[in-house]
Amino acid sequence: MMRIIDMYSFKYFVTIVYMLQTTEYQPIEFLKWYWRTNDFSRVMHRKQLERTKPAKLLLLILIIGSVLQIILGLLVVFLSPTTYGSIVGLAIILAYPAVWAHLIVIPLFFGRVFIINPKQKKLINESKHIFKEHTGIKIAIAGSYGKTSMKELLNTVLSPNKKVAMTPANKNVSISHAYFASKLKGDEDILLIEYGEGAPGDVPEFASITSPNMAIITGIAPAHLEKYPTLDDAAKDIFSLSQFVDSKDIYVNADSELALGYIASGQNRYDHKGVLGWKISDAKADITGTSFVMRKGKVVVKIKSGLLGLHNVGPLALCVALAHEFGLSKKQIEENIAKTKAFEHRMQPRPINGAWIIDDTYNGNIEGMKAGLGLLKSLKAKRKIYVTPGLVDQGVETENVHIEHGQAIAKAKPDRVILMDNSVTDFIKMGLDDAGYDNELQIIKDPLEFYTNIEHFLASGDIVLMQNDWTDNYN
Amino acid sequence: MKTIAVIFGGQSTEHDVSIVTALASVIKPLELTKKFHVEPVYIAKDGSWYWDKKLKDIKFYQSGEIEDYVKKAAKTHILFDNGLTLVKSSQFAGRKQYKKIDLVFPAMHGTHGEDGELMGILEMANVPYVGCNVPSSVIAMDKILAKQVTESAKIPSTPWTWFYSDELAHGSDKILKRINSLKYPLFVKPAHLGSSIGITRVTAKDQLMNALEVASHYDDKVIVEQGVENLVEATLPIMGNENPVPALLEEPLLKSEDFFDFETKYMQGGKKGTGKNAGAKASGSQGYSRIPADLPKDLYKAAEELGLNVYKSTGCRGIARVDMLVDTKAKKVMFNEINPLPGGLYAHNWNKAGISNVELVSKLIDYAEEAWQKKQKLATAFSTNYLKQF
Questions:
Q1: pTM of the model
Q2: Which superfamily does A131-338 belong to?
């Protein structure tokens, strides 16, 4: 009853706009979320609406529209001579929250079709020309995971000695590429362009616009399967880069088992064993970082990076190899690699009251999860704690992926597993049971409360691996 | 789900410290366990009791809103009904709100709470409660009684003497004569207060009278202790009932000529110490100590043993903290005092020892229930025909 009453409060409209904002004003995503929501009072749990101009405008439309609907309903009630008419009028009045939650999508749709899309199309076309004419080395970075990290790593290693420009943060679709192109000066030695595939055909589209002459494929894992029918479709989309870049200039992460089947002859592999003739030895990882040695002929490079986990050896090795190809000296490479450190929320170690939290909350794929769990297993600690809500966007693979996730957790043998209570929790538990996990298991009903009070759950000597985090639009 | 009442505040100089202990170290972790309903019970400075959900918010006290609240809010009563029930009059129609309490977590420091008075009420109600019982609280909170009990258990301490505050008013000669047998520097302390309130370090005879008067102002009994040379202070949080377990030996970072008063302990984060390490290894909730204490292995072990002996000989249960004085040259550990409810539960130390805040409060609840269960097995009735004789 309270839930229904909540729909008639002002906060309900704020919630609707918040949902639109969180789904980046994508009508379908918004409606899917709206239809599966039972309790609107709990939607704005983690964050609040940012009162931007579009948000304020939408809020105004909702209020005006609703007031008009209520007036219409009242007119029908009072002017109708029959009881039937009064009931219809009353229904019009009571229906305004649901009606306007749907009608609000219409201005968004028209705004997108008639204003935003033409503007973006023009910008993208212009960027096509800019990329084509650019004389720098254009490196496309694609894959189901690890793209942003790879891009940041290359930038850290190359930029002290080369003019490097890269697409910002995780802005990795055509329009972001177009904005990126519009800001280029034209004298850059290297462009690092991240490809964020989200639906079939994305990667060829990005490649046709950005004209890459080198490509890195960071790995294949189930991701974005809400739009790709199968994992194979996603992998083929990513590997379609071979239509745009010479095989000898494509580098594929061979530590990604699912990528192996797609590597064509002539393409380069990079992994924990080596790349481009470089051999790797003495790889070690602890809470302070990762170290290893690379040898090629008489050249020996000693690598010490602040990145956590042996899964970073391959990407780091590729950075070294490419830096060497681009003419950086051994000293420059070693110095630049030493500057690499964990990126925010990606295997980022944080000390807290004598314990360590490895913040991997931006990790959203099973391969990344396994890599983190591998690190957790290898680390020494008084007590190991693993925290996760599971993964999103796994489509038909949701059950299988989370059973696999649970099994991987059990293999890492944490002393305590903490799961956030949601739609995939039972699948993870099934995986844990399958693999015989018999240590402590805790299910958290309120993730926000848990995260904000984490220090109360920890003691000195603990290592906590926190992987992935679900925003309000997942449950 | 069990209901736990956390009682804090009180008529004590450590009223404010108690609020912080309750809100930060007890209520928050208890709620995070998701196993208990937590009811905050605040005892105002005038001794009135209040029970209200809003009393869990530290801002309520920081903003001064609490002052208005206690003027307007209905006071809480307690009902002994084969257990403990909180009773609050409703604002409407003379109705009353009742809440049966399954367990009490006292978070009181100092007089009228930590000293056994509150425990007496809880014993009468026959409700399980966390921490030391009546006799151990009384002993622990009376520095003189604690010395007498531990001495009888052959636990060493520095030479000391004591007097009633009234004696000072009737002439100081006899007192000074007793004190003359001690070597300077001396420490003059009120017998019952914690948090270093009213304590003076006396290095010369001309400072003595003032120190005695200050201590007498706060308490009806005053203890005078001889200082220790080559001093390392050490404190050991301990928890458990019959088989207590120690946390880590903690060493306040201060030079031998310094000591921490209330201001230094709670208001400045322990920055008063001028030793070269002062504050450098701050790690406690009060930010002034080294954990574990930097002592040779044998002395560390001796201090741990002495701490446990003190805990057992004074009959402590649940949780307590034993303070010791270590003469590093003579390799001697001496008992100093015992605190039956350490500020903030000394959670910072337990954290270092591998126990989180949530685990700490959970264990203390378990110990409280264990002690209560054991008490239930004792016979409290005895049939006689005594009444029939009248």
A1: 0.77
A2: Mur-like, catalytic domain (3.40.1190.10)
